[in-house]
Amino acid sequence: MAKKRKVSHIPNRTHPDRPRPKSSSALAASSAKKQHPKRQKQQQQNKQPSQEKPTIPFKPHEHILLIGEGDLSFAASLVRHHKCTSVTATVLEKNREELEGKYPHVGENIDVFLAKEDEDGPSADKEGSDAEDEGKEDGWSDEDADSDEETKKPPARDNRIVYHIDATKPLPNSLLSQRGPFSTIIFNFPHVGGLSTDVNRQVRHNQSLLVSFFTSVLSSAPNPSKPFALVPGGSIIVTLFEAEPYTLWNVRDLARHAGLAVEKSFKFQAEAYPGYKHARTCGVIEGGGWKGEERRARSYVFRRKGELGSQGPAAGGKKRKKGRESDDEDDD
Question: Where is the composition biased (Basic and acidic residues) (predicted)?
Answer without folding.
Answer: 150-160
